[in-house]
Design a protein that fits this description.
Layout (H helix, E strand, L loop, with lengths): L1 H11 L13 E3 L27 H11 L4 H26 L1 E2 L6 H13 L7 E5 L6 E3 L12 E5 H6 L2 H16 L2 H12 L8 H28 L2 H13 L7 H17 L2 H9 L7 H12 L2 H8 L4
C-alpha cells in the first residue's frame, strides 16, 4: 500500500528539465579465466521485448513512469541531455581506446553482433576496448535508434585477458540488457520525479528506498539478459563467481550457488536487527550471493523456459 501511495505522488509531481543531472554510467564487473571457446548455439530471440525478461519491480516501475503525466516531455529532454553526454564519451573513446570492427578484433566484433542479434537489438552498439588493469564493462544504458549514432559499450583490456569468449559475450549481454531496457532513461526519470520528496521526513526516505530497490532490480534484469544471450547458466554464474572472488581460481559454480542458499537460510534465521541493518545498506549492485540465487531461480522458472522455447517472429 505504501509503495502505491509513493508511486502515485511521484507521477503527479512536475518534472523539470532544469533538475537534470548527468547520470553515471551503468556498470558491471566480471573477472574470469583464459579458457576460450567461440561456439554459441543460443537461440535467436527475434522480436523479444524487454518486458519479457525484466525483473518484476523493474517492469512495474518502468511501466508506471512511462505512462505518468508529462513523461513524454521529460523523456525527450533526458534523451537530448544524454545525447550530449554520449558525444563527449564517444570522442574520448575514439581518442584513447580501440574501436572494435570487422578489421579490428573481428572475433570480438562478431561476438557483439551475435549477442545483439539474440536480443533483437535494432541497432548494434559500437564496442570499444579500453586499456585498464581492472576487469570491467559499462554502457551509458540508452539504446540508440540511429545507425549513424549507435549506443556505446566498453570492455576493458583486463577483462578480455581474463575471460573466455563465452563469458565475454555474456558480459556484453548484460550491458545490452541495460540498453534494451533503457535504464538510464527510466532511472533518471524516476530520480527526477522523486527529488521534491527527498526533504520530507517519511515519504522522502521511502521514495529513496524504492528507487534503490529499482536500481538493484535493474541489475537483476540485466543478469537475465546475459543468461538469454549465453543460454547457459553456468557461463553467467561462473563469470560472477570469478568476479566476486577476485580470482580465476574460483571455478565451482555449484558450490557458490550452495553458498547463496546458505546465506538465504542464515538471513532468514538472523536477528531482526541484523536483517534490518543489511536491508538499509546502500548498494549500486545487489549482493553477489543474491545475484547468483536470483539467476538460478529465474533459470529454473517457467518464465525463462517459455522464452527460450517461444517461436519468435
Amino acid at each position: 500500500m505504501k509503495k502505491t501511495i509513493i508511486l502515485a505522488l511521484l507521477a503527479l509531481l512536475p518534472i523539470t528539465t532544469g533538475a537534470l543531472s548527468t547520470p553515471s554510467s551503468v556498470k558491471t564487473l566480471f573477472t574470469t579465466n583464459n579458457n576460450r571457446n567461440n561456439n554459441n548455439n543460443s537461440k535467436i530471440l527475434k522480436g523479444i521485448d524487454a518486458s519479457q525478461f525484466r525483473h518484476p519491480l523493474d517492469r512495474d516501475l518502468t511501466n508506471f513512469f512511462s505512462k505518468a503525466p508529462l513523461s513524454g516531455i521529460a523523456t525527450e529532454a533526458i534523451r537530448r541531455s544524454l545525447s550530449i553526454v554520449e558525444q563527449g564519451v564517444r570522442l574520448d573513446l575514439l581518442s584513447s581506446s580501440v574501436k572494435v570492427s570487422p578489421n579490428q578484433m573481428p572475433e570480438l566484433y562478431e561476438s557483439m553482433q551475435e549477442a545483439a542479434s539474440i536480443l533483437d537489438m535494432e541497432v548494434v552498439p559500437e564496442l570499444y576496448v579500453q586499456s585498464s588493469p581492472q576487469a570491467n564493462a559499462y554502457t551509458l544504458a540508452l539504446q540508440g535508434q540511429d545507425k549513424n549514432k549507435p549506443a556505446i559499450v566498453v570492455v576493458t583490456s583486463a577483462l578480455l585477458d581474463r575471460c573466455s569468449d563465452k563469458e565475454v559475450q555474456a558480459i556484453i549481454g548484460h550491458e545490452l540488457g541495460h540498453l534494451k531496457c533503457s535504464h538510464s532513461l527510466y532511472l533518471t526519470l524516476g530520480g527526477l520525479a522523486s527529488t521534491p520528496l527527498r526533504g520530507l521526513p517519511l515519504l522522502g526516505s521511502q521514495a529513496e528506498q524504492l528507487l534503490q530497490e529499482w536500481r538493484l532490480a535493474a541489475e537483476y534484469s540485466c543478469d537475465r539478459a546475459a543468461l538469454l544471450v549465453s543460454q547457459d547458466v553456468n557461463v553467467v554464474a561462473g563469470a560472477m563467481l570469478k568476479l566476486f572472488a577476485g580470482t580465476s581460481r574460483a571455478t565451482n559454480t555449484q558450490a557458490f550457488i550452495d553458498q547463496s542458499r546458505e546465506y538465504e537460510q542464515l538471513l532468514k534465521d538472523a536477528n531482526p536487527m541484523v536483517r534490518a541493518s543489511i536491508r538499509m545498506q546502500q548498494r549500486t549492485h545487489p549482493l553477489p550471493v543474491k545475484r547468483v540465487g536470483e539467476l538460478e531461480n529465474w533459470f529454473k522458472s517457467d518464465e525463462y523456459k517459455a522464452i527460450v522455447k517461444m517461436k519468435f517472429e
